[in-house]
Amino acid sequence: MRKSLLVLLLWAPFAMALVPPPAQRLDLPTQQAIQRFLLHNRILDTPQDLDRAPYIIAADGGRVLGANGDRVHARGDLDPSQPHYGIFRRGRAYTDPKTNELLGINVDDIGTARFVTAGDLTTLALQRVTQEVRPGDRLFRAQSPVDPATLQAPLSPSLIEGHIIDIPKGVTQIGVLDAVTLNKGRRDGLVEGQLLTVIKTGAIVRDALKGDPLKLPDVRAGTLLVFRTYEKLSYGLVLSASRPLAVMDRFKTAHQTQ
Fold first, then answer.
1. Which whole number is the average pLDDT over 65-69?
2. Alpha helices (H) along the chain
3. pTM exceeding 0.70
């Protein structure tokens, strides 16, 4: 009996280490912010992903532009079993701020369309448009929604550092529940559910007495939750911010910033 108890006591720490950490507990506003963002924003890993996608030919009746409620015709590999498609247009190309490597292509949300009939020209009915649909706009299947149960940080994340490189909604200051684009992705080890600490670089000031420039200390300014990863880029949601965040603020994996 004593030997069995001793074995259990010795094994307990190892058994606990094998238990995965709980998933991030996301409240309803946080979940809604993520899902709304993913409806309107998407990244493609390469320009070829855009070039190969099905595309709009014309609106019904041969008209050039399509508006809400119109039917449009498209060419390309469209799946009749996929009832809804997103319509996107090429947007900003993201490059790494240090190496200038192409990291991915942002595609701008134009709207959504419902599959109607298949053929050499596929017919779709526009359901939601943010602006007029044009020939050449690309069609993509809807992104899978984020399941809060899958947002689980790794057991021992390695140190990952990077920068916020964009605020897709176009503002300059970032606050709680805003989504941002990060210049690191799956290849760098980021996973969905990873928590990151945002660090603002200390300002350069001049010593009024000696006249030499001095850098103020860096300060922690907020926390990000990685909710969608791509090969070289990721989206993060601001969970907390002690001051306004901005493009080019740095981030680190949260437990490494102690």
1. 84
2. 2-18, 28-40, 47-51
3. yes
Q: What is the pLDDT of residue 211?
A: 85
CA distance 111 to 42: 12
- Non-local (6+) Cβ contacts of 168 within 8 A are 37, 41, 106, 179, 180, 181
| DSSP code, position 251 | E
Domain at 152-257: CATH code: 2.40.10.410
CB 188 within 8 A of CB 253: no
User: What residues does each domain of the chain span?
Assistant: 41-141, 152-257
Nearest to 229 by CA among 118, 143, 134, 119: 143
What is the reported pLDDT for 153?
Answer: 64
Which H or E run contains 127? strand 122-129
- Measure the CA–CA gap between 104 and 54, rounded to whole angstroms: 19
Length of the chain: 258
Nearest alpha-carbon partner for 87 in 102, 59, 58, 109: 109
Indicate the range of 27-31, 55-59, 110-114, 128-132 predicted with least confidence.
Answer: 27-31
Q: Which residues pair with 55 in a beta bridge?
A: 75, 138
